Amino acid sequence: MDRLVDRSISAKAFTDTSHDPLPARVRTVVVGGGIIGASIAYHLAAAGESDILVLESNVLGSGTSWHAAGLVTGARGSTTMTKLAKYGLEFYGRLEEMSDVDVSFQRSGSLSVARTPGRVDEILYAKDVADQQGVRTEWLTDERFKEVWPLASHEGVLGALLLPDDGHINPGHATIAFAKLAYELGAQIREDVPVERILREGQRMVGVLTSQGTVHCERVILACGLWTRELAATAGVNVPLYAAEHVHVRSKPINGAVPSLPVFRDLDSSYYLRHEAGRLLVGAFEPDGLPRPVEDIPANGFAEFEPDWNHFAPIRAKAEVTIPTLREAGYDRFLNAPESFTPDANFAIGETSEIPNLYVAAGFNSQGIIYAPGVGKELADWVISGTPGFDSSTVDVQRFSKHQNNRSYLQARTKEGLGRLYAMHWPSLQMETARNVRRTPLHSRLAELGACFGEVNGGERANWYGEAGTTPSYDYSYGRPTWFDRVAAEHKAAREGVVLFDLSPFAKFEVAGPDALAVCQKATTANVDVQLDKAVYTLFLNDAAGIELDGTVTRLGTNRFLVVTPSFTQQKTLAYLQRLAEGKAAAVFDCTAGLATIGVMGPKSRELLSRVSPENWSDEAQEYTHGRMVEIADGYAYSLRVSFIGELGYELYPSADLAVNVFDALWKAGQDLGIKMAGYHALDSLRSEKGFRHLGHDIGPIDDPYSSGLRFTVALDKPGGFVGRDALLKLDPAAPEHRTVYVALEDPEPVFVHDETVYCNGVPVGRMTSGSYGHTLGRAVGLAAIAPETDLSGDFEVQCKGRNYAATVSRRPFYDPKGERLRG
């Protein structure tokens, strides 16, 4: 069977329980019977968790799965996503045999073409990651391209990558296959049972209210596609996603349209092609998407919108130029149906920050078929163990800030989000829609000084600076962009003079009360029972000893602590601390917006501060990693002597209403010192030279402190222990999972992107976890995770765009270790 847009799918294919009463209590409720929910139910049941109830408001697969194009691939743009996709591709290969359901899996391969030099670079990087993970690839010659896709014109194609093991599947029938397997392992499947509300008592989730009554349970998994946001909101939980129209059309029969044709992805033209029943399916990821509020979408299943040929016309024209037979054949079907998208075009999975044991798997940005098996497996493992078993940093639902759930924000962002899948995935790429929503108190000053802003977690921050009085904009490159020299100048000023960073987006929290020390001790690996005004760098682990967060904890008083973590972890940090404070005599306050953060960094930072403050700024007056309240400009600020760049530096924390006054005083006083503004790109290059870890890249939820080279943060013997201590005690520091090392290329021209493969004596031994250009060193530099047994005296190389470059690998950072270090 090779039939898409199939409305005949239902659980009645393997059972009919429509007249059975709902159970009063089960262990796990999965809300949503699409391919994601069905895969989660199967993987839970396969792991022995059979007390499962799957609730579908209509019939299985009738939300989004039924109208998907069914494309599957084993390669994505990062190591983590490629592992998930590869598992799915392999699983689909045996799904029909396992389930005895005809899922029409066709291993036809897939072909991605590049029409610009930048796209060639992007695809070459994807090829490197695929090769690293054992996914077969072939870079095509012109002759081979014509052989593989004889219906396509080669005009304008600069490069093409074939993944011979890719293909496509019937998504509706794959959904039925997953559900049948789950049912056979003991899961209960109920169709036509809408879930109306998540039931909670205080901070506990206790069940769901359905159209047929209440079901009590220990945990709920929301896998209900574009309806997830609204259902989560009934429990006060934020899941930012929004629907948009998603289109594919089918041609009339075409000679040469045969099952063996690989899926054709014309990324620069925003469309894909696949075979269907002697025809060609043309699908669009247009850059100007059409958002749809959920109120506009029928809730009775198999929702469709009216055909919009005018909106589809630009995509159609491009496809018909490349495949002339499309124009000759015409079309016999236009499918326009809803799909949901997240603000950053990555899906959202994991436990919610607001309620323990309420999990989400939604917002798949038209990639649900690709990821369903992998997500089903990983989320099932997460639910059972309580911690993620893969690097979930980029897809964790807790990465979003609360404001990103705003409907106006989501509608604006979704116009761009739909096309983001096929748009260029440039290094440092910034979204263009829904901007200037969250701004720091210094935003207007930075703009006047030529800031080029980027966005993280919905908040604006200065990434680099052009000329004062201008409004610079990004250009992008897999090599050196035009702003490369601008960042180099900021980097140099930080090493040799003095710079100002607006670090206000840092997530900041105060923990206060009689039990504040106990809460902070439980949260952190380091001992934070220190003298007043002492800052401690620490990790925050999960129960499996993986690193969920990192940051500093400063003791402001006997029962007051300031916790500072990366900006994108604001929601996660708040939830982490609040859960530990529950039932304790301690309160957690989010003071992110109330406190600005001004970084004064560089060898001349002490001299600058002495010009705007009457305080003594000597080493004796304020030691490294110590803080104090200081008089500065026309007010006061808390000063913390720490540095993320390896030089003398201070972080000033004035209240938001004083921030501009303090900044203006610093800027004016530093003119004859050659003061410069510096952005986050310079911060990244500086920390890369110094070897400081970056959460979400070098460290994450599956990395333990020993493998990450952060053993110094662990105080195993501190009173009361800490989250993850028991798991950490089971690890041998002398036998880490991997070894974290520092890598610098010998050739000064290439730059690092991410996930490049590291070779030792010609054998792959690991990958780059992060990297930047070390402007002090004059070459690319970064961190890598390699096999612990690797001989560090061997000959090392790093693969960049298919070419291997000689590299130097060290157990110590390359930059002069005499500077101040926050981390060690």
Account of the protein in words:
By secondary structure, the protein is an alpha+beta fold. It contains 18 helices and 39 strands.
Approximate strand percentage:
25-35%
Helix coverage percent: 10-25%
**Spans of at least 5 consecutive residues with low confidence:** none
Oligomer: single chain
Question: What's the quick description here?
Answer:
24% of the residues lie in helices and 26% in strands. With 824 residues, the chain is of the alpha+beta class.
Could you list some keywords that capture this structure?
824 residues; alpha+beta; 9-stranded mixed sheet; 18 helices; 39 strands; globular
Describe the secondary structure blueprint for this structure.
Layout: E1 28-31, H1 35-46, E2 52-55, E3 71-72, H2 79-99, E4 110-114, H3 117-132, E5 138-139, H4 142-148, E6 159-163, E7 167-168, H5 171-184, E8 188-190, E9 195-201, E10 204-210, E11 213-216, E12 219-222, H6 228-233, E13 242-251, E14 263-266, E15 271-276, E16 279-284, E17 291-292, H7 309-322, H8 324-329, E18 331-341, E19 348-351, E20 358-362, H9 368-385, H10 407-417, H11 443-448, E21 451-456, E22 459-465, H12 484-496, E23 499-502, E24 507-512, H13 516-523, E25 535-541, E26 547-557, E27 560-565, H14 570-581, E28 587-590, E29 598-601, H15 605-612, E30 627-632, E31 635-640, E32 649-654, H16 659-669, E33 676-677, H17 680-690, H18 725-729, E34 739-745, E35 757-760, E36 763-774, E37 779-786, E38 796-800, E39 803-810
Parallel strand pairs: 1-2, 1-12, 2-8, 4-14, 12-20, 23-33
Antiparallel strand pairs: 3-7, 4-6, 5-6, 9-10, 10-11, 13-16, 13-17, 13-18, 14-15, 15-16, 19-20, 21-22, 23-29, 24-27, 24-28, 25-26, 26-27, 29-32, 30-31, 31-32, 34-37, 34-39, 35-36, 35-38, 36-37, 38-39
Helix pairs in contact: 1-5, 1-9, 2-5, 2-9, 12-17, 13-14, 15-16
